[in-house]
Each structure stands twice: as structure tokens, then as C-alpha cells.
Design a protein that fits this description.
- The complex is a heterotrimer of chains A (241), B (351) and C (401).
- Chain A is built from ten helices and ten strands.
- Chain A has two domains: 6-81 and 156-240, P-loop containing nucleotide triphosphate hydrolases (Rossmann fold); 91-154, no CATH class.
- With 241 residues, chain A is α/β, with parallel strands linked by helices.
- Chain B has a single domain (27-340), classed as ABC transporter involved in vitamin B12 uptake, BtuC, CATH 1.10.3470.
- Chain B has a two-stranded antiparallel sheet. In chain B, strands 2-3 form a two-stranded antiparallel ribbon.
- In chain B, helix 3 (44-75) runs antiparallel to helix 11, helix 3 packs across helix 12 and helix 13 crosses helix 14.
- Chain C has 401 residues and is mostly helical.
- Chain C has helices at residues 2-5, 14-33, 37-63, 70-88, 92-119, 122-142, 144-147, 176-185, 190-196, 205-228, 231-241, 243-248, 253-279, 284-287, 290-303, 308-336, 340-345, 351-365, 369-400, and strands at residues 153-154, 171-174, 198-201, 281-282.
- Chain C is globular.
- The chains are: A alpha/beta (241), B mainly alpha (351), C mainly alpha (401).
- Chain B: It is a multi-pass membrane protein.
- Chain B: It comes from Natronospirillum operosum.
- Chain B: Keywords: Amino-acid transport, Cell membrane, Membrane, Transmembrane, Transmembrane helix, Transport.
- Chain B: It is found in: Cell inner membrane.
Amino acid sequence: MSEPILTLTGVHADIDQYHILHGIELQVPRGELTVLLGRNGAGKSTTLRTIMGLTKVPRGSVTFNGKEITSWSTSRIARAGIAFVPENMGIFGQLTVRENLVLAGTHGPLDQSRLDWLFDLFPPLKKFWDRPAGNLSGGQKQMLAIARAMVEPRDLLLVDEPTKGLAPAIIDDLATAFEELKAREVSILLVEQNFSFSRRLGQTVAVMNDGQVVHSGTMAELAQDSTLQQDLLGLGLGAHQ
Amino acid sequence: MSQANPSVGPWALWRDRLLKLQSDKPHLVLLGLMLFLAFLAMDPATWFVLTISGMAMGTMLFLMASGMTLTFGLMSVLNLAHGAFISLGAFVGAVMLTGALGVYTVSPSLGWNLLAILPALFAAMAVAGVVGWLFEVIVIKPVYGDHLKQILVTVGGSIVLIQLIEVTWGANEIPVPRPGALRGAFVIEDWVPLIGGLVMEKFRMVALLLGLTVYGLMLWVIDRTRLGILVRAGVENREMVEIQGYRIGLLFLGVFIAGSALAGLGGAMWGMYREIITAHMGEELMISVIVIIILGGLGSIRGCFYGALLVGLINLYIGYIEPRLAAVATVGLMVGVLMWRPQGLIPVIKV
Amino acid sequence: MLQSILSGDLPRSRVLSVALIAILIALALGPFLFPGTRAFATLGMICVFIIVVAAYDLMLGYTHIVSFAHTMFFGIGAYGVALGIGHFGSGFGAIFIGILGALLLSAALALLLGLLSLRVKAIFFALVTLAVAFAFLSVVTQMYHITGGEDGLRVRVPRELGPAFRPLDSVTGFDLFGFLGVLFTQPWNLVDGFRDAFFTVRFTGRTLMYYALFLFAGVIFLFLLRLVNSPFGRVLQAIRENEFRAQALGYRTVLYRTAVVILSALLTTFAGALFALFNRYVNPENTLNFELMIFILLMCVLGGMGTLYGAIIGAVVFVVAQNYLQDVLGALSEAVNVGGFVGSLIEPSHWLLWFGLLFVASVYFFPSGIVGQLRIWARRREVQQAVAERQAESSARERLT
């Protein structure tokens, strides 16, 4: 296996006076889809925000593509090739779908063939091209959010709970899209509570509890080992099954 | 009939339309209402002159207010020193008009005048922009995200800037020559139907034209260019703009400089309009500026424009009827609008 | 005893205690220590601003409400008394009517502002108050047949409060600064200097007015100190820290905020009335100007927001600086005697420039103001002492074992 694209070593993080992350150890393999599991409040979202430089890191280090990015600014991390879809999707509701995507293309005009590929993945984007993104439905917004992260080739994609609050049919569409991305060997770190969704997509898996990674391995291993699953489901995955 | 089924009666239909209009386009409703009420209160010729003058005043105020509304919208920075940049622009403009370019200013030919006016306006913008740059980096940057401290340091910074203006150009008011070709008024003979003959001050027409041009330009930038998309996106969610890889600090600095430059431009225009300036003129204008950005909805360029028109018009209309009540009417307008729509007429952000 | 007078809110810093005691003595014996009308006016203004700034701090420091309408209430009080006397003659009844009317008007306006603050967010509120205060200033300036416009009004105070009333003859005072000046510059003339320092105090109705002012300032200050240390004050601080949480705990935060705005307005109105009686002349510039509003803000921040003692320190530092910084700059520019831009930078008339710089710097480097900073230092020293003691203790224990 080649060197991981992203490595977190002993990362701590605080939000206000609360100590959220207690020494995260995490590796995201290149070209694979890694799922980060864990119950609410385990620190999954904070981990993603910390990688993006949105939460300060008092101790520990984050390495991306062999470069130490721990103290970089958010915009610099983004320009280095990490795309982030936050939990609330962060769509610009006052901007049109087109403008949302134009803004995401930091290297100039959008590439038409890539755009066509995104339209294939997410047909509603084409349909509502010149409408304000604020008028889209929840699922369409999620599509836009992911499309925005993919409108230019990026090395790593961080996605925070894309299935949250979506109807099953739309979750299925999203899964198809993620499979397409996997086929293109995009490295993805996906935070997810929906276990069937993550079982379908995940290649590697890491489980968090109380600000630490308590288990990591392959998804196949976790999917087959029912005792292990039981242990980890006992951490709170059960609620979603 | 209409009582039996209120939703289909013609009155109800109109009422529904009106309700929809007042919730969708409150700025147009208010503007229309004001024009209409003023029209009832005075004779048509006066009304016409006052309306044009009010709009001219409004567009000058828009130049001054637009920068402040954008800096607030983008970074939620409240710059109470904005007025000092208005004064600064006015002084730089005045110095240019009276100093080396003075000969062009007094000439009655518009062509020669432009040789003085354009450099004066440009210098006002440049100086205000550069000082704005320093001001952002030195004074404002350390207090991002803390409104109370922003209010304090910008008030303090405003005192310092105004004192520096006084140190440089003296504490007394200085007269500003109005360029030769822009003195006096257009006289229209009384062939215009309904209105009759009227007299329009030339400078106000020029101010109106310039204001509308800048507004058009700004709308174009905001609506059509990538920079505009970026600004609008930043007003909505600045963290997400950073996540896309843009340096929001740089963007903000740019907007701040542009806003200061526009304040300088507005100040220079205002100086020529009033023909007399003091270091404190910006502070006095800040009241109108504040009312405008509250009326329009903080962060909204369109709202700012309509707010400026409303303030300009109410100043002229009320000033015509009872000059002493102009300031009260302006503030009353603001309080009324706030009671009706607390976020302003065209809100873009959830403050 | 002291605990209960100060409501348990002690200065908590030795330097601060000393400064406060010095200020108290200086204000209490002021007319007998500092000769001259300018010093007398300075003393009076300090007392006025202690009330105004303490009341402002109740909003700004304790509740984080930024209002720019404070001078409006000050002006209402000042003009209330001036108009009351103007209409009903120079009697205490007229003063009473004037103050009562002013308080009613202030209460009504403050209630309106308080209600408006329900509709808009804090940052809007600051801007709205600024605009309202400006509108009020413009009304006062324009209604010259009532208010005298820019020229303002003279306040013909009752004889008992005026300069013509001489309740005491030939009281002796001691010129403290004159004596200190001699002490430091010509110590060999100490005996003469000591003798020369005695002067005759003109004890008039104005002196009586000053002591009334001093008394009111003291009482109001102690009242505010009690208030902020009462359960009411605790709720205010809870609202300041986290309005949502305070709401969730069941406090009607709106009620509290409105009450603070009204109370602060009423106290300021009263201070305005006292100012009119002391100064005997009111105009828009000395009661309603935006510059005055900024001065109040400066005093509050400089002294230390959220520490009522800061109002005393801020008022003293500012008023003294306002009155004497110009002298210092004047002496400086004479001594340096450079022309041009640099020379005009240190011209006495540009004292505000230096004050502005000082203000901005103090917001950056001492955001908690003079009092806050003194308390931080005192606290740090205590902690250091405690740590040193503990270390000494543990090393002693180690030696034993």
C-alpha cells in the first residue's frame, strides 16, 4: 500500500473551553473511501474541521500529501487540494447553482466535460442551473455541495454526513454518485452515521469515541466480524439500524 | 358578492396584489408612496425639481454609504470612522480644485473643467483608498469579530483621522469652488406639459448622472463578475468562501479599500455641492449614512441605493415644507421602517 | 462596615484603593485644596461625569448594550432644569418641576428605545440610538425660540446656589499643588512656600452647589454599586455572558434590558440637571454633542468597563486630561518649537489627536481598562505569592523527609 494521503498524529483540539479531540490517530489511504464512524459528539465533525484548519490544533500534527499542514490557513489547505462538504452543506443560497459552481472553480473557467460528468451524476443541477440555490430541496442541495467539491479535480474530499435528513431514494442516488467517485480513485474521508450506506461504500473504516479513534481497519473485516460490529455498534451505531 | 367569496372580488384581488407587492418589493412601495404623498403636498413644478434634487443628493449619499454597508455585510465590521474618509475625500478634492488645477476649475468651459474635476475626484478616491488600507491593517484587523471593540477603536480612529485632517488643512471651514461650467442652472421654458417651466441646478444633474453611473457599475460588478459572486458569497457565509480556497482577508481588505475610496469620492462630490467643507462634515453625514444602511438592510447594495434615494428625497421634501424637521423626518423614516421590517428593506444577511 | 457600604465589591487592588481614597479626599476637600475657578469647574465636572459614566457603564459594561443616546438624556436633564427655571423663576420648586418633567420625558424615550431594541439586534441598536440622538440634537438646535438654539440658555439658579450667596466668611484653604510645586522646585524656600500656600476660599452658593453635586455623585455611585452586586446585577451579567442561557433559565431578559436602559437614562437625566445647576449655562455643545458622547464612551472604556470604580477613575483621568493636557502640549510645543506639520501635531488645540491615539492603544493593550488592569495585576501578584508559598512549603517538607 502506498503512503496514506492524509495522516493525523496525536491531534488535540478545543472548542471554546471544551477539549474535544484527545489525540486522534488517523490515516486516510490514497484512492480509497474511508468512513469515519462514531456516535454523536464523538468528535467526527470536529476532526474534519480540524483537518480543514477551521479549529486550531494546540498539539499534534496533520500531514497531507507529505506536507505538514497543521498550522496552515483554511484557504491554503483548500488550495493544496482538499475539498470539504460540511454538515450543513454550506450552499450559498443567494447565489445561483451556476454561481455556486463557478466560485468553486478556483482555477478559472469551468471544464465543460467535467461539468457534463457532474450533470450526469446529478441531473437536477442542470435543470436548476440559473435558479438561486436556496430554492433547491435538501437532497438537491447536497448534490450541489458534492458537485461543488468535485468541480475541479481535488486530491481529497471530506464529506460530513451527506445522508442526514434525506429520503431513502435520494440516499440511493448519492451512493451511486459516491461509487462513481470511487471508480475514479478519488480519496474520500466520509463521516457517516448511516451504517448501511457506509457499509456499501467504505473500503477502510475508523471508529471514533470520545475524541479518539478506537478502531481502524477494513470495512470488509468490520462487516463480517459480528462481535466487533456488536462492540462498535454498542458505541451507538445501533440507533441508526 | 365579494363578501360571499372574498378571494375573487376585484378589491380582494387588488388587496392581495398590494400585500404581495409590499412584502416582495418594499423598497419600491415605499419610494412610490413617498413620491405620491409629496406630489399631493406641493405643486408639480416644485415637486419635479425637488425629486430630481433629492435623487441627486441620494446618489451622492449612496456613494458614501455603499462602502460601509459592504464592509459590514462581508466581515460584520462596523466602521464608525467611515465619516472621516468622507471628510478626507472632500479635502483632497478641494485642494486639487483650488491648487495647481485651479485655473481649469474657474474656466467656464466644461472641457477645461474636466481636467480639474477628474483628477480631483481620482485623487480623492486614491488618498481615501490608501488611508483606508492603512486603517484596515492597523486599526481594524486586530479586532475582527468583536463588535464592541470595533465600535471603540473605530470611534477612536475617527477622532485621530479628523484631527490629522485638521492638522494638515487647518480647523476652519474652507470654501470649495464649483467648476465654472457647473455653476448656475438649466432653465427649462414653460412648455413642459403639467409641470411648466423650471430651473434645475446643473451640478445636481451631474451628481445624479455620476451617482447612477457608479451604481450601474457596482451592480454590474456585483451581479456579473466573479469578484461580485465572491463578495455576495462572502456576505452570506465567509467560512465557506475560505473552504473554497479564497483568502477572505484579502477580499475584505479590497472591499474596505474600495469602500473608503467611494466614501472619498462621495465626500469630494459633496464638497463641490455644498461649496464649503469642514473636517467634521463626514461625522455629520454619518447620520444619513447610518440611516441609509439600516433602511436598506446591512450588506445590501440595492438596499443601500434605495435607502439613499429615500433619505435624499425625504430630506428635500420635508426640508421644503418645514426645514427644521428634515433630520427628524429622516430618523423617523428609519424608526418606522425598522418597526415594519426589522431587517431593512432588502435584507441579505441575517444580522 | 466598609464591606456593607461598598456592597462587598471592594477595589481588590492596593494601588486602586490608594487612588480612590486620594480621589475621595481631593473631591471632598477640593475647594479648599485647589484655588481658582478652573480647578473648581474641573472638580464639578468630575462629579457630574462620575454619575454619567457609572450610569453608562451599567448599560455598556454590565449588560453590553451599546447606546449612543446617552447625551440625549443628559441634555434632557440639563434643558429640563434650564426651562423649568426659565418659566417658573429661580426657585427650588421650578427646579423640581424641571427635573420631574425631564425624568418623565427621559423615561418615555428610554422605554421607546428599549422596545425598539426588542425588534433589532444589538449592533442595529447602537446605530439606531446614534441616529435618534442626532435627531434630538437637531430638534433642540432648531427650536431656538424655546431652547435658544446654538446659543443655549442661561440658568438663573436660586440665590442660595449662586455666587452672591456667602454663608461663610473668610475660610482658609491650603493650595496643595502650589505647595508641592515649591517643595520640588525650591525646597530651600519651604517655609515661605508653606506660608504662601494658604489662601482664602470664597465660600459661596456655588460651593454649596458643588457639595450637593458631590453628595449626589457619592450616593448614586454607592446605589449603583449595590445594584450591580444584587441579584438583579447577577442576572444582568448572566444576560451579558449568554443571553440565550439566561432566557432558558427563565429570566425575562427583555424586561431586564429595558429596565437597565430606563434606569441608566433616568440617572443620566438627573446628572444633566445637576450639571445645569452647577454650570449655570446649557447649550447643545456642552450637553448634546456627539463629541460629548464619545467622551463618555472614552471615560467608561478607559476606566474599565464592567467595573463601576472605572467610572471614577475614567472621569478623573479624562476631565483632568481634557483640562490640562492642552497646557502640557502647549509647554511642549513651546519647548520644542518646531514648525510645520510636526509642530502643529503638538499644538495644544490638537490634544484630541493624542487622546484618540491613547484611546485606541488602550483598547488594544488594556481592554479591561485601568481598573481592570490593576485588578489583573493584583490578582497575578496574589497567585504568584500563593505559588511561592506553596513551593516554599513543599521544599521545606522535602527537607524534612
